[in-house]
């Protein structure tokens, strides 16, 4: 068995049949696979086979030994798919999940039927952003990770959600307060070390979908367009879907719109 936990939506009674081409979803930092619950519920009702995996140190997945790396997480995803006998998938990741999905594409492109990048970016961090990540990792290593990530609430959710959806704001506050130190430390160190993935996107031979909340201040319109541009580089097939009124957490701020985009992309990639 691999070290990465994969969950199924509660509304889907069975794991995707061996050999099928399901949608696999990877969560953002510092959350876990439960952030996909609403989207997965909708996709389950529409007959889209979907699983979500916890990144190392989050949810039910233990932290991986050794230097934190998104490549290590990508290998753990590959092992989960081997365990489930799923040789090909449509892989989607939100933010940190997108970084892991791009690491997977760099190493296992032939296992992809399509790639979805939500609220993420293909470039590297600035020196200041990297230094901040290491500061947060060190706080988590002292047992103070939750204090260090609490302020993220101001930038994770769009201004529309913050003004009009108190339940969604509360939910994310609770998730930030419960985020595990092991995952916070692993995630920040792994993200700080990530390379540029533009060449990976340029070389991708399967369709790509980029999704962005119109109010996302962490992954900008320019970041999204740069990924689409790279995906189109060698005559590739890519589109950008912008979700109005959502911020960085499109999947929890507007699950219906995200499920719509994922369903039509999955059907196009799999001919289902
Ligand atoms: C996330 O939502 O996963 C993070 O904001 C990603 C990041 O810190 O770059």
Describe this structure in words.
The structure is a single chain. The protein has 272 residues and is of the alpha/beta class. It has a domain at 23-123 and 195-270: Alpha/Beta hydrolase fold, catalytic domain (Rossmann fold, 3-Layer(aba) Sandwich). Helices cover 47% and strands 13% of the residues. It has 13 helices and seven strands. A seven-stranded mixed beta sheet has the order 1-3-2-4-5-6-7, with helices on both faces. Helix 3 (96-108) links the parallel strand 4 and strand 5 (112-118). Helix 1 (37-45) packs across helix 13 (255-270) and helix 4 packs antiparallel against helix 9 (181-192). The longest helix is centred in the last third of the chain and has 16 residues, at 255-270. Mean pLDDT is 94; it is low at 8-14. The structure holds D-malate. The site of D-malate has 7 residues, from loops.
List keywords for this structure.
single chain; 272 residues; alpha/beta; Rossmann fold; seven-stranded mixed β-sheet; 13% strand; globular; binds D-malate
Shape field: globular
Q: How much of the sequence is in beta strands?
A: 5-15%
In the predicted model, the low-confidence regions spanning at least 5 consecutive residues are 8-14
Would you count the extended β strands for me?
Answer: 7
Task: Provide mean pLDDT, rounded.
Answer: 94
Helix content: 40-55%
Specify Rg, calculated over alpha carbons: 17 Å
């Amino acid at each position: 068995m691999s070290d990465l936990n994969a969950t199924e939506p509660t509304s889907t009674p069975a794991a995707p049949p061996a050999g099928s081409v399901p949608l696999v979803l990877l969560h953002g930092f510092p959350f876990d696979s439960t952030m996909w619950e609403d989207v997965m519920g909708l996709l389950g009702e529409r007959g889209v086979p979907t699983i979500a995996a916890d990144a190392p140190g989050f949810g039910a997945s233990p932290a991986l030994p050794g230097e934190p790396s998104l490549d290590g997480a990508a290998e753990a995803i590959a092992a989960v798919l081997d365990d489930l006998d799923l040789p090909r998938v449509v892989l989607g990741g939100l933010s940190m999940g997108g970084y892991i999905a791009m690491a997977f594409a760099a190493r296992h492109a032939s296992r992809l039927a399509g790639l979805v990048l939500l609220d993420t970016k293909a470039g590297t961090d600035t020196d200041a952003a990297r230094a901040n990540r290491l500061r947060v990792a060190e706080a988590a290593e002292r047992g103070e990770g939750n204090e260090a990530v609490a302020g993220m609430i101001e930038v994770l959710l769009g201004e529309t959600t913050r003004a009009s959806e108190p339940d969604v704001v509360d939910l994310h506050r609770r998730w930030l307060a419960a985020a595990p130190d092991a995952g916070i430390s692993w995630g920040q160190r792994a993200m700080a070390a990530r390379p540029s993935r533009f060449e990976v996107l340029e070389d991708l031979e399967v369709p790509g979908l980029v999704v962005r909340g119109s109010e996302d201040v962490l992954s900008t319109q320019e970041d999204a367009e740069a990924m689409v541009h790279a995906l189109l580089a060698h005559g590739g097939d890519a589109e950008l879907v912008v979700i109005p009124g959502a911020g960085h957490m499109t999947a929890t701020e507007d699950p219906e719109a995200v499920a719509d985009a994922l369903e039509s992309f999955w059907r196009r990639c799999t001919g289902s």
